[in-house]
Amino acid sequence: MKSAFVRRFLTIGGVLVVGVLLVMLFPVWFILGALADVLRTKFRLPIVRLLAFGTCWCWLEIAGVTMAGALWIAGQSGRRSAHYAIQRWWSARVLAAVRVTCSLRVEVEGLDTLGTKPLVALCRHASIADALTAGWVLSVGAQRNPRFVLKKELSFDPCLDVVGRRIPNYFVDRSAVNTESELAGIAEMARGMTDGDVAIIFPEGTRTSSKKLQHALEKIHIKDPQRAGRLNSLKYLLPPKSAGSAALIDAVPAADVITVWHVGFDGLDNFRGMLKRLATKEAAARVVLTRHARASVPSGAAFAEWLDAQWLEMDRKLNEVIAIRKMG
């Protein structure tokens, strides 16, 4: 949708209507949802929990957009620090809502290794919660100012659309024919980063699944059999695309690099997966950050091979953790 005004009128208005209806109809959906859960012997009440989180999410979106609107009225729409504060507040409250309504705790490892230099974060992409989780970890946990490479479809999230366009994020068009223009946009987003800033990108480009993994490896085998053989052991991660990450890293010569993988969010990419997850009691989600000094990160053609090696290592660690969790 090219018109920002029309898009925001529809998305903000839609979220407001849904939020009001969820509050007004709370007794109805609570009773019917609980009844449906019990009849299906889902005694952790996944439908009720999901609707409760949906209610929280709608009103947190409305609150975030309202704060951004207040800044606009006050002539402060260009005040970057205020919008980072909204982003930090919003991500913390959404994660709190997840903990309360869905009983999902998040444990983070590696925050104490990050230092103060600007960072480029290369993150695993497994669910719709990934951008939120990365933003929460790095803004609230690490007290950084994050900027994201996001797919343009996320413009339909009101807070990401309004607040996210007032701080240096880049909404990439994955269907663009002119990839050089998109890479230039990614690099431009990262310029000017200083201590305390972090740029976040998801090199896989889309949420992972076994079907997508098989398809990706088949395509790579046609173009580069040697790389396909190197990545053939991947089980949980998709082969990373190096161009966007390289453009981001090259744009910030002073930045170190962190790789970020997580376990516990898998399957949360659709309503069926969410309901399945909420119906069972699982261990806390775990997010692991690994810092790589800039001197250890090669450039040029060697970067793609380095990135593959990091993804293989993350996949190996994921495999170990998931195997242990299944045994437990």
Domain count: the total is: 1
Strand ordering within the main sheet: 1-7-6-2-5-3-4
Low-confidence stretches: none
Largest sheet: 7 strands, mixed
CATH architectural name: 3-Layer(aba) Sandwich
Helix content: 55-70%
The sequence of SSEs as H and E is: HHHHEEHEHEHEHHHEHEH
Instruction: Figure out the total of helices.
Output: 12
Index terms:
12 helices, globular, 328 residues, Glycerol-3-phosphate (1)-acyltransferase
Q: Can you tell me about this structure?
A:
The protein is α/β, with parallel strands linked by helices and 328 residues long. The protein has one domain (4-327): Glycerol-3-phosphate (1)-acyltransferase. It is 55% helix and 12% strand. The chain has a seven-stranded mixed sheet, sandwiched between helices. Helix 6 links the parallel strand 3 and strand 4. Helix 3 packs antiparallel against helix 4 and helix 7 packs parallel to helix 10 (242-251). The longest helix has 28 residues, at 46-73. The protein is globular, with a radius of gyration of 20 Å.
Detail the topology: elements first, then pairings.
Blueprint: H1 4-24, H2 26-39, H3 46-73, H4 80-102, E1 106-109, E2 119-123, H5 130-141, E3 145-151, H6 158-162, E4 170-172, H7 179-190, E5 197-201, H8 210-223, H9 225-231, H10 242-251, E6 256-263, H11 271-278, E7 285-292, H12 301-327
Parallel strand pairs: 1-7, 2-5, 2-6, 3-4, 3-5
Antiparallel strand pairs: 6-7
Gist of the model:
This protein is an alpha/beta fold. 55% of the residues lie in helices and 12% in strands.
